[in-house]
Amino acid sequence: MSTFLGMPVTAPSGVGNLRGDRTFPEAAHDALADGQLRRNLRHATTTIRGKSGRVIAELPDWQELRTAGSAIKASVLARLPELLEQLEERVVAAGGVVHWAADANEANAIVTDLVRATGSERVIKVKSMATQEIGLNEALEAAGIQPVETDLAELIVQLGEDKPSHILVPAIHRNRSEIREIFLRAMPGVDPGLTDDPPVLAAAARKYLRETFLSTRVAVSGANFAIAETGTLAVVESEGNGRMCLTLPDTLITVMGLEKVVPTWQDLEVFLQLLPRASTGERMNPYTTMWTGVTPGDGPQSFHLVLLDNGRSAVLADRAGRAALHCIRCSACLNVCPVYERTGGHAYGSVYPGPIGAVLSPQLTGVEDNASLPYASSLCGACFDACPVKIDIPSMLVHLRDKAPHSRMERAVMRAAAYTMNHPRLYARAQRAAKLARIAGRRGRGLPPPLSSWTTARDLPEPPEQTFRDWWARR
After folding, report:
1. Domain 24-312: assigned CATH number
2. Which residues neighbour 338 within 8 Å (Cβ) at sequence distance 6 or greater?
3. pLDDT at 466
């Protein structure tokens, strides 16, 4: 199997978790009606925002770190082929095997074949957005292989036959009573007298997972970063489950998006300061696990790295949209987004929810397959202010809205507006006529049919008493 950068093919349909069954407005309508969901989201995002804000305020050079992180990511994308080839060379020299996967189908086939070759019928997994993106769990289950998520929130989602709704906290939409019911229903060997006390729930998960860690010989992980100069992979996490998965099994298979590579250890230093503060509100990650190939007698004795494209080359080909690949999956943009806080992640239909999902998912799949997501925003700019690598999500949303399919009526209206604005006299007449909108529509703030469909969900800006043209003419 082979692929190469610059091959702008989008992620295939029918596999993975990048496309929803419904548009964002349809899914959001149902989410907004769920009062418990909104309470869960509000409590969680408010808590994370507060913690993050406090530890960020401790750093006098936070803005300089953001600038450095953005610059490093831009440099990586500018020389991505070179860095990936260097990474491959170093991984192979350290005893690992590198596989290149053009899309989700190739990646799933590679991992499934590798697991089958070990004779194992079960794998333990570290939390990984890339494996969720490609639908690896579904592919393994179809092949008769049981995947077991070891991150507590991912385990809750898996046992509940649910889908993640947050990049950092996949079960953010569940409260502890709901988690207790899921454990009682689906966790093997759980105590029937289980309560919803958080330490008790955590202890039940720990007991179940510890037995699984000690009896499973194959692990699948993602990677937060890969260091090209040494071939080192890094995973950061808060529970210790990642450390167990990355050290106990005989075989370790890592699935990593192409964009996760960084040139040097010094570059990694920047991101290890940015990521924990922006994501969990911690000064450093409790567990940072790094490994380089295979070390005889220590850790996994077989290591495979799967480098995943799955539409990333298509994103890279768009000069105005490629900065979405800067994302370090911190979820800061989700935690400040007023839209996400009210709808949750499932409304986005993709494993990547929130503002970053609204720009990344449409580019990975092709905008026509996720045409409603660029509109899942008020363009307030809070996501840009929070992003630790300065991704200008609002500008990117506008760019993708321009690329999204538009109805014939909408195109006709926009052409008429452009023609009017390009002819001064006609534009002046339109300004005078606009004053009639105060009495033409709903509460004086709408438009008459057929334009009323535009103002059913938004107020028409009220025309000023005096236009700039009138003011200018009188002087």
Report:
1. 3.40.50.10420
2. 378, 380, 382
3. 80
Cα separations (Å) of 313 from 5, 19, 56, 259, 325? 6, 18, 33, 10, 10
Which amino acid does the sequence have at 52?
A: S
CA distance 32 to 342: 6
Question: Strand, coil or helix: what is 120?
Answer: coil
At residue 1 the predicted structure's pLDDT band, cuts being 50, 70 and 90, is very low
| Residues 26 and 102: beta-carbon distance below 8 Å | no
Domain positions in the chain: 24-312, 408-473
Contact 50, 377 (CB under 8 A): no
DSSP-derived pairing of the beta strands 225-227 and 261-262: parallel
What is the pLDDT at residue 20?
93
Distance between CA atoms of residues 135 and 109, nearest Å: 11
Between 467 and 262, where is the model more confident?
262
Q: Which ranges of 57-151 does DSSP label H, i.e. alpha helix?
A: 62-78, 80-93, 104-118, 129-134, 136-142
Neighbour tally for 312: CB within 10 Å? 25
Asked whether 356 and 327 are in contact (CB, 8 A), the reply is yes
State the pLDDT confidence band at 2, using cuts at 50, 70 and 90.
very low
| 3-class DSSP state of 62 | helix
Is pTM, for the whole model, over 0.85?
yes
Spacing of C-alpha 218 from chain mean position = 26
Q: Is the dihedral angle over the CA atoms 326, 327, 330, 335 positive or is it negative?
A: positive
Burial of 120 (0-12, 13-18, 19+ CB in 10 A): middle
Give the whole-angstrom CA distance, residue 387 versus residue 330: 8
What are the phi and psi torsion angles at 298 (to 5°)?
-140, 110
